[in-house]
Amino acid sequence: MAAPLELSCWGGGWGLPSVHSECLVVMAYAKFSGAPLKVNVIDNTWKGSRGDVPVLTTEDNIVSQPAKILNFLRKQKYNADYELSAKQGADTLAYIALLEEKLLPAVLHTFWVESDNYFTVTKPWFASRIPFPLSLILPGRMSKGALNRILLTRGEPPLYHLREVEAQIYRDAKECLNLLSKRLGTSQFFFGDTPSTLDAYVFGFLAPLYKVRFPKVQLQQHLKQLSNLCRFCDDILSSYFRLSLAGISPTGQDTVDANLQKLTQLVNKESNLIEKMDDNLRQSPQLPPRKLPTLKLTPAEEESDSLQRLSP
């Protein structure tokens, strides 16, 4: 009997099995290759680290990062690319590199750096799945990590300022989406009628951008104009994640959005309160510690006190 495969990942919303791109990549590949994954969704009772998800756990191995997890699954005979030619395999690597270089920075910016999206959608959603008080700290760290990752790949000469970086990454992302749309054409998947690794990566990067309801939708609007990419995401969701998403209705989604809005207000209120308390402590005058006066006894009182200690 094969060793059980357990995948720890962020949960879903907005009709998605997960709102986290890298988790979606692994989940989609497992569906395409037939890997029997048991999915453990992270919530506010989760005891492990959240910085390395998705994480694949077996009896003898712990594997993180999508590329390493997919390689591990292939070694276990779960291969979604066995029908690809050598050229198609090379094209897969080239398009994945394109996604990570051109599209991923814009996806990270949309979720974690764009302030309206971060404070109204991203931060409340993730904070609700992290135990207090870490829920007030970790989303901010994840946001800084996303910004650092963007600047690492885009914050070099001649792009010195963040606004210049933002303009460039959205231009690159739109160009990448156009190339993907042209490559997909009218096909069901990128290499014919069978999904492969490239389909898992494209789905993982596009589906959250397509489905999550953001107040700032610059890149989302461009994606929705490319109907074949939207159809591609919808087909994978309905064909491979239908059972896990059963029972989600528009009314139910409206309830989720209403609850998320209430949670947004609560998290922001708590964050503002903590920041105000911290500012008050910093601004309050710091007085040196007071020394208590030392009482001195007269010679007569000292003699009387000594006699009292010696008396039975």
UniProtKB/TrEMBL annotation:
A Gene Ontology term for the protein's cellular component: SAM complex
Alphabetically ordered keywords of this record: Membrane, Mitochondrion, Mitochondrion outer membrane, Protein transport, Transport
Domain (Metaxin glutathione S-transferase) ranges: 173-236
Disordered as annotated region, ranges: 278-312
InterPro entries (UniProt xref): Glutathione-S-Trfase_C_sf, Glutathione_S-Trfase, Metaxin1/3, Metaxin_GST, Mito_Protein_Transport_Metaxin, Sam37/metaxin_N
GO biological process terms held by the UniProt record: mitochondrion organization; protein transport
Domain Mitochondrial outer membrane transport complex Sam37/metaxin N-terminal: 23-142
Keyword Membrane attributed: yes
Subcellular location: Mitochondrion outer membrane
Keyword Membrane recorded: yes
Domain of life: Eukaryota
Family indicated by similarity: Belongs to the metaxin family.
Protein name: Metaxin
Gene source species: Orycteropus afer afer
Gene giving rise to this polypeptide: MTX3
